[in-house]
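Look over what follows to help learners.
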Amino acid sequence: MRKKIWIFFVAPPAAVLFIALCGELIKYLWNWLVPALFTSAHLITFWQALGLLLLCRILFGSWGGAGGDRGKHRRGRPDNWEAMTPEEREKFRQTMRTRCGSFEPQSTNPA
């Protein structure tokens, strides 16, 4: 336990440094790319870059973690198509037909 005590002293400054570097990177990329693409755009500050990074992470990204569980909810579900009996499949088809309508092509006979 004594050997791992150093992490309490190293991890917080390392996290602050990492966040600061990410903010600077976003700021430089924004200030280099966006004004060139959009003439009405203006330069941003470091704090605005951190806000943009936070917003992008919330909207589009994940916070990392130990592998996450992306896609596991579909692959690991016991009620996936292969595990269904023919009766369950037909019930599922009927439910989808009532929700979404029929997927069969309509006849093109003029009436």
Remarks:
- Residues 66 and 72 are 14 Å apart (CA to CA).
- The two ends are 84 Å apart (CA to CA).
